[in-house]
Amino acid sequence: MKKLVIILILLLAATNIYAQKKWTLKECVTYALENNISVKQSELDLEATDADKLAAIGNFLPSINGSASLSENTGLSLNPTNNELENTTFGSASGSINVGYTLFDGLRNFRNVQRAKISKLAAQHRLDKMKDDISLFVANAYLQVLLNKANLDVLKAQNNVTKEQISRTQDLVDAGVLPRGDLLEIQATDASEIQNIVTAENTVQISLISLAQLLLIKEYETFDIEDEGYDIVDDGISSKSVAEIIANAKETRSEIKIAESDVAIAEKDLQLARGAYYPTLSAFFGYNTRYADNDPLNRSFTEQLYLNDGIGYGLQLNVPVLNGLNVRSNVKRSKVNLQRSRYQLEQAQLDLESNIYQAYVDVKGAFKAYEAAVKAFESQELAYQYAKDRYDVGLTNAFDFSQSKLRFDNASIEVNRTKYDYIFKLKVLELYFGIPATELKF
User: Fold this and answer.
1) Domain residues of the chain, as ranges?
2) What phi and psi, each to the nearest 5 degrees, are found at residue 69?
3) What is the pLDDT of residues 85-113, one digit of tens each?
4) Sign of the dihedral through C-alpha 51, 52, 57, 62
């Protein structure tokens, strides 16, 4: 009984620890990259390229095939041991081994291996881009939770002040310093703030559920994040010129590497299509033997296999002369695909430049908005403190004080909004510069 009680206590403790776990941003990103279905599908696409590469390498190996047959013949049939027609019933067997090897095929086997290697690189770049995109989605959702929590803290803190003011106002009303209408005004403000707190709590919970669903976490009722230790961390990216960021992005960004890989694949496809213009030279070797149970010399099975065997070997040359213009049409089609992929690379570079310019401008604008919000907050804080001091001594009414407090609350929320907006946009710019999503600092 004592052991059972201990086990139950340990289980309850473990459950409580799990429920109290708070996820950091790094843990969320890592978990998403390990469990996201799209990432898993991209990893399968990468594994599939290994099979393509293996098949391309296999084309350099000789083909070896063996065959065997066993038959029963009745009536007029050809005796395989002496090549004479016989009207009888007999059993026969035969076997053969054939070996073939391509000596020259217009370098198509070599090009196929190169193409398979490029395809694997392209798949890896697509996987990297998928991870970057998902990391960015997770970071955005995480910062949204932080923003909602920060706003909730502001509302709760200010409501505590309101409750203190209710107590002070009650004393002033009782002393006859303030009219009862001021107390009612403050109480109405308290009720409105409580309603806002409930709405903010729901907003926090909804954003937590959205983040948990993005991570494919089913137990989202107990899901929570670490909401401390996140601040503006700029490693100097905002001080770099937009030209420097674009130049580095063109060398590191996955979307450019994907487009470049597509061009390289299209070039190999064109070389493969042109390879069909060349003749194909292959070597072959064959060995065969046979047995029949009506051998006129009554030789044994092994003796017949030894005496009735044969070998064939040689070279085979296939020269393309006229094939319905298939090769020419394939070459032309490959040229069109190559040009299309080059245009797509050019478009990808233009899109990247445009996105970086937009991200660069967004960062500058977000930082200015954050600075302005901080200044406005500082001004509203002074105005609020001044209004509070005047209200405490009965020099202003409750309505004016509530309006000052409302402006202060809004200024606090605006600081939070602009802060996390700036953090997110700064991290987007860092991603464009080539910093891996898992190495972003907050």
Assistant:
1) 23-61+105-278+320-439, 67-104+282-319
2) -145, 150
3) 777 787 888 899 999 999 988 888 889 99
4) positive
CATH number given to 23-61+105-278+320-439: 1.20.1600.10
In this structure, which amino acid lies at residue 339? Q
Three-state secondary structure call for residue 288: strand
pTM as predicted: 0.76
- Kindly calculate the radius of gyration of the chain based on its CA atoms and give it in whole angstroms: 39
Strands 310-318 and 63-79 come out as unpaired
Q: How many CB atoms sit inside 10 A of residue 29's CB?
A: 23
CA 156/CA 162 separation, integer angstroms: 10
Tokens of 176: 């006859």
Could you report the per-residue pLDDT of 27-73, keeping only the tens digit for each?
Answer: 888 899 888 888 888 889 888 888 888 888 888 889 999 999 988 88
Strands across the sheet with 84-104, in order? 63-79, 84-104, 280-292, 310-318
Rounded-to-integer distance, Cα 385 and Cα 408, Å: 10
Residue with tokens 């350099």: 60
Q: What are phi and psi of 435, to 5 degrees?
A: -75, 125
Question: pLDDT value at position 229?
Answer: 65
